[in-house]
# Entry
Amino acid sequence: MNLLLVDRTTLPTALLPQAKEHMRVRHIRDDTLITTYLAMGIAAVERRCNIKLNPATYAVDGFELRLDACNHSTNRYRYRLPVNNVSAISDLIQSGGADQAASYSVEQSDAGGSGNSYIVGPSLYGFGWSLQVEAGVDDPAEIDPAVLSCIYRIAAAYYEARETNAPVFVDDFTSELVAAWRPGT
# Structure
């Protein structure tokens, strides 16, 4: 899987009003700084929990897809994608052939969280398949509340420590990150 394009500004900007409420910041002087800390919090959660939150486009080779389930009577196969929070697929092509993406739908087991994403459609038999995957979240309302909590708390920790030499350790949020990564455990 190759990252083709990532937007690291849309989501932090969308989260800014709620983050300021969380931090009890009423002025606009630090909006740019808080947005930067939100981006850092999002990056920490993405790395630690393997959750794709920032809108991004990935190139995926067919050998990275894993067959999860099949219904031979309806010729519907479900393939697990190597990335989560998938909103769309495109350019599903086998060795220079026509785009087959319209024949497939996307399923997300835990939208806005760490659950798997799948494409469902006809069998992808043979070799040479590739596709592009649109992943991530544009709307904060689509993010799991546990994940949002982690992002806000990490950003607030950076904000509180902004004028000290005290480092912020993402490991201090381990229990919350585990809850975001494995909801219900």
Notes: Strands lie at 2-6, 56-61, 66-71, 76-80, 86-94, 105-108, 117-121, 129-135. The chain has two domains: 7-53+142-181, 56-135.
